[in-house]
Amino acid sequence: MIPQCYATGQAAGTAAALAVQAGCRPRALDVGRLRTTIQAAGGIC
Fold first, then answer.
1. What single string gives the DSSP state of each residue in 1-45?
2. Is 43 a residue whose pLDDT tops 90?
3. For the stretch 15-29, what's the b/e string if a residue is b when 16 or more beta carbons lie within 10 angstroms of its beta carbon?
4. Which of 2, 3, 19 shows the shortest CA–CA distance to 43?
5. Is 90 exceeded by the pLDDT of residue 44?
6. How far apart are alpha carbons 28 and 41 in whole angstroms?
7. pLDDT at 45 over 80
8. Domain boundaries, the chain
9. Average pLDDT over residues 6-23
10. Distance (Å, rounded) from C-alpha 7 to C-alpha 40?
11. pLDDT at 15
12. Closest C-alpha to 13, from 40, 38, 33
């Protein structure tokens, strides 16, 4: 259970940060960029 919570939290936080940087809503983000960013940080995708 804990790994899933970690992955969900990291994805949500990363999406929020990318959305702020891009000036858009998280829903409008490029999913590929989100995945690449999470993987570069050592996250689970």
1. -HHHHHHHHHHHHHHHHHHHHHTS-GGGS-HHHHHHHHHHTT---
2. no
3. beebbeeeeeebeeb
4. 3
5. no
6. 21
7. no
8. 2-40
9. 95
10. 14
11. 97
12. 38
Q: Which of 4, 30, 26, 31 is nearest to 15 (CA)?
A: 26
Q: Which residues 6+ apart lie within 8 Å of 35 measured at CB?
A: 45
* Digit-coded pLDDT (tens) for 26-41: 999 999 999 999 999 9
Rounded CA-CA distance 19/2 in Å is 26
Residues 5-15: what's their mean pLDDT?
A: 93
**What is the dihedral sign for C-alpha 18, 20, 21, 25?**
positive
In sequence order, the 6+-apart residues with CB closer than 8 A to the CB of 8 are none
